[in-house]
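Box S1 | Example of a co-folding query
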Amino acid sequence: MSATKLNDAAIFHRQKAWVVVRRGKPRVALVLDENAAVPSDLAEGEVLIKVQAAALNPVGYKLMGILPNFIAKRPHVAEHDFTGIIADANGTDLATGQAVWGFVPVGLKIGTGQGSLVQYTRVPTSHIVLRSPSLKPSEAAGLGLVGLTACEALVHIGKLEEGQSLFINGGSTAVGIVAIQLAKAIGAKVTVTGSSKREEFLRSLGVDAFVDYTKAPVYEQLERDPPTPKFHLIFDAVGDANVPLYTQSPAYLQPNGLYLAVAPWPTSTLGSIMNFAWLTWEVNRPLWLGGTPRQWRKLPVMTVKKEKLEELARYVDEGKVKPIVDSVFKFEDALAAYDRIMSQRALGKVVVKVDPEVD
Ligand SMILES: NC(=O)c1ccc[n+]([C@@H]2O[C@H](COP(=O)([O-])OP(=O)(O)OC[C@H]3O[C@@H](n4cnc5c(N)ncnc54)[C@H](OP(=O)(O)O)[C@@H]3O)[C@@H](O)[C@H]2O)c1
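Box S1 (continued) | Returned holo structure for NAP
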């Protein structure tokens, strides 16, 4: 890529970045820095990426609201998921000008201050894969975190097999949408929860059975009409602590089945803290004290391994996992994008175009 194409930011070494400067909600914690430094100190194995689009994830605003500065090591650039063009291949086996997508994990962000809501970011080559020409930047931007999460849950931890039966709580979450597509690619039977307005969309992804979570508690609906055979795997992709869905699971989860939860984190409300404490008790309660005779596990916060990113990219490039985009915002409107994802009503990824000229 020529110097002209890198645009003024790289030439003058200054760029625009959404920077997390303090703990709080996005409107309090984030500042648009129009004079941030373009990274110039690439380590061996790192490349400089001209970011075209970034996508938001709940982990972004959750950590913004929870972690104190001394742990989060603020200021740092916001967000994790991105797609863009290699601006400096830095002697790696990649080439300047190649289109890629990838993910900046939480640990790397805390270590380097880098994120994805920025014009230029630096990442190790293990954190990116080549972008197929069939993907628009707005589609590729949000694949990383939700894709790695769904793959880790179903393939690596859940070990879902063809012919098995999967229950996804939260089929219309961005994680759930990828999980449904992966499960169908594996050949599993998939039951999901969603609100009725999402049923047609979820069935279009191949969902076999649908439970409307707004009608009655999900565990009650499953107890009333349990699947035959019972589920092999329950993947809870909503992210709150749904205690009865776990404690009642012997009615609809096989004895050797696994209840895998994406991320029940407490918020600062008393109700959420109490619920989290209740969940902690129930998942640790021994059987002889009336504990639930089913295994419960929580997914760890995602890191990146090159082979896992490449595995996900194969599903995407073969058309087995299609990106679903809820909305696309201008870079300057990132705070409105946060409002959208925090509404918890998005259907697919909330994307921020960093380069206004891309699709
Ligand atoms: N462990 C990790 O590394 C990791 C990685 C990624 C995500 N996560 C966690 O996974 C969770 C989901 O993230 P996401 O980005 O996929 O969320 P999201 O896309 O923002 O979720 C929004 C969707 O959730 C649906 N929804 C809301 N409440 C629901 C409920 N009670 N039951 C069923 N569906 C419900 C909404 O549908 P309606 O509008 O129809 O209600 C909406 O379509 C979050 O808690 C996130 O922190 C963890």
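The two ends are 20 Å apart (CA to CA). The longest helix spans residues 143-157.
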